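[step 3/7] fold_predict: job queued, chain A
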Amino acid sequence: MTTIAISDNDVYIVECVRTPIARGYKNGALHSMQPVDLLAATLKELVKRSGIDAALVEDVICGVVSPVNEQGANIPRFAWLKAGLPKSTPAVQLNRMCGSGQQAVHFAAQGIASGHIDIAIGCGVEMMSVVPMGSDWQLDNPDFAKGFDFKVLHQGVSSEMIAEKYKLTRDELDQFSGRSHELADKAIKAGYFKSQIMPVTVTGTGKVIESDEGVRVPVDYKKMKTLKTPFKEGGLITAANASQISDGASAVLLVSGRKVKELGLRPRARIVTCVSVGSDPEYMLLGPIPATKKALDKTRLSIHQIDVVEINEAFASVVLAWQKEFKIDPSKVNPNGGAIAHGHPLGATGAILMTKMVNELERTGKRYGLQTMCIGFGQATATIIENCSYIPQSKL
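[step 4/7] structure written:
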């Protein structure tokens, strides 16, 4: 039973869904599919689960980090049409790098909050096995990198700088990474992800994929210690304490409070605030710190009122630095593992983490969730949501 009153002027998440996350290589479970087909299936499933008339959807906004070739040409419009959904609904794709899927949710929420639309979808897709990361840029071109007043660095170099700045150790990073795999494995075995993941029938093989592919247990901590540090000789960052290259998609349906009441929908979470910030382009992955502060300031909430945190595990150093700044109970942070375990399909991860957070708040009966993501070259996104069916402490 909903315990918060529905306000006409608020924005609500009515439904959310994600695909399993597969390894983003030619031997990955989803590789034989096309990104447009994966997204089409996701959008179709979202509409089906919500029970809404698809003709009422006023926009589809999609995050894609490498928007070229198979992921170019406004992929959400093609995916919507391929799913057999109404031709009257427009769509657009965006690229805020790793924050793209979350930004898609933000733009959908902001369009609704402005009063210009009532129903929109924020979604994301990335198949890194089909369109390799970096396909759309010229970072290796020396002419492109000229003229900036900062060093144009690889994210891995920045993650090493952050580890040094916050005096993190290799053991801390590896232990956190192992935790991610162990928590994700526990969540899978307990069935926590079952309702949020749509099974995908893979084109060509007919095989049905139902679970995240990248989770590895038991964790081999001894092997972790032997891995090379590609970004710095004698450094700390390895393949084991960084996010995985992945394939996946996710979608979130957002509706105005007025329309929720008019259509008799069941809201699952309320958007409390959504922010984006710019940050130091060299220490580029520290953006979640000012983004979190801005989100908390706007809502007048304290970090200790946040019950569930989904901070993208681009690198373990990102999360551990954030935790040192906010001193939050670590058990609240990525309670079911993160991108180090299940992977990071760049444009989709923002919507995936939102889907995970909505479901975790419902599962635990907790109230507030915070999602934040670091972004290349110094940006970050943050969202705070409120569970519409949380259980007040007085009723526990």
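[step 5/7] annotate
The mean pLDDT is 95.
The radius of gyration is 20 Å.
exit 0
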